[in-house]
Amino acid sequence: MSSKVKVFIVDDSAVVRQVMTQLLGQDSGIEVIGSASDPVFALQKMATQWPDVILLDVEMPRMDGITFLKKLMVEHPTPVVICSTLTEKGAATSMEALSAGAVEIITKPKIGLKDFLTESSQQLIRAVKGAARARVRAARPAGTPTQQPVSNRPSAAMVKTTDCVVALGTSTGGTQALQEVLTRLPEDCPGTVVVQHMPEKFTAAFADRLNRLCRCEVKEAADGDRVRPGRVLIAQGGKHMQLKRSGAQYYVNVLDGPPVNRHKPSVDVLFRSVAQVAGKNAIGVIMTGMGDDGARGLLAMRQAGANTAAQDEASCVVFGMPKEAIAHGGAARILPLTDIAHFILQG
Q1: What are the CheB-type methylesterase domain coordinates in residue numbering (predicted)?
Q2: pLDDT above 90 covers what percent of the chain?
Q3: Which of 60, 237, 337, 338 is the most exposed place for a label (fewest CB within 10 A)?
Q4: pLDDT for 260-300, tens place per residue?
Q5: What is residue 6's predicted lDDT score, i.e. its pLDDT?
Q6: How is the beta sheet containing 30-36 ordered, strand by strand?
């Protein structure tokens, strides 16, 4: 890849293509090499110069974005940032896109589009630059079996008397990483709390999708939800989540507040609360993602006696958040993605 990130925009709205081209062109590290109104035209244009990152709409004529994305990930794996509307349908489609290999989501409203994109220009630029650093792998062939659960849990006599709490934090590439980990957990897995950087309204669709795939219960967290064995709570997009304790029981607070490390929900907000409330009865894992959110929180967890780990570089889509956590001293272990479920169940 050259010093400039080469971007191609695929969107059936001429206004979107024009505004995104202008906004991205303001950054000296990005070059928009072309745009098209649908994937068929895009493939013809990209044949002469292939981009580093593709900005892709999901609802288009002739070939929809999901079909194009699946074709792309088999024939020419390329980092893709999905541009999706802030609707229930848009959220569900975006989850399908992330599952098919997209690395990031940028949301757009149906009205006030130009003003919204202008106000979100820095988010758009960060998403493109993060995607450019992503390791995109070829899609698995259709029919690849789902992961078998990890079965080597400690015997009942070895289980701690206080329930263990697992805290997971991730960002770019995290939807696939979380699926890899959570589908390997048994139905009586430790109570788990998760922050995945994701826009508002999208986390409910994400949790629903995981709930259909996993043996344990997965749900979008609601204020006051109990953290208990067999349940995974996903932080709401646009809200922070903290762990609280009442007697011997853990529960979550879902609250508003300013972004932390440019994110809401923030991994640091969750991890710090877990360090304070659960201490040595917790396990913390930071996985693929751009930036440093969670690095200081994981260190706080480790200092409080929790067992901590970071995903290794080779298995990350973006080795940003784990790298920072390791540099800060928060990760007691560095593990490939395929070993994280085992790490969680060993406590």
Answers
A1: 159-347
A2: 68
A3: 338
A4: 999 999 999 999 999 999 999 999 999 999 999 999 999 99
A5: 97
A6: 30-36, 5-10, 53-57, 80-85, 104-108
Question: CA-to-CA distance for 229 and 4, rounded, in angstroms?
Answer: 47
pTM over 0.85: yes
Burial of residue 232, with CB atoms counted within 10 A of its CB: 0-12 exposed, 13-18 middle, 19 or more buried: buried
Place of tokens 């109990």: 226
14-25 vs 121-132: helix crossing angle, rounded to 10: 80
Please state the φ and ψ torsions of residue 337, each to the nearest 5 degrees.
-55, -40
Q: DSSP per residue over 20-87, as a string?
A: HHHHHHTSTTEEEEEEESSHHHHHHHHTTS--SEEEEESS-SSS-HHHHHHHHHHHS---EEEEEESS
Q: How many CA atoms lie within 13 Å of 218's alpha carbon, on the beta-carbon side?
A: 24
CB 237 within 8 A of CB 202: yes
**Torsion-angle region of residue 16: left (phi > 0), alpha (psi -120 to 50) or beta?**
alpha
The contacts of residue 295 (CB under 8 Å, 6+ apart) are 268, 286, 321, 324, 325, 327, 328, 330
Q: List the structure tokens of 301.
A: 């967890």
> Which residues participate in catalysis according to the annotation?
171, 197, 293
pLDDT at 114: 65
* pLDDT (tens digit per residue) in 19-33: 889 889 989 999 999
Dihedral angle sign, alpha carbons of residues 7, 13, 18, 20: negative
DSSP-derived 3-state class of residue 204: helix
Q: Which domains does the chain have, with CATH numbers?
A: 5-132 (3.40.50.2300), 156-346 (3.40.50.180)
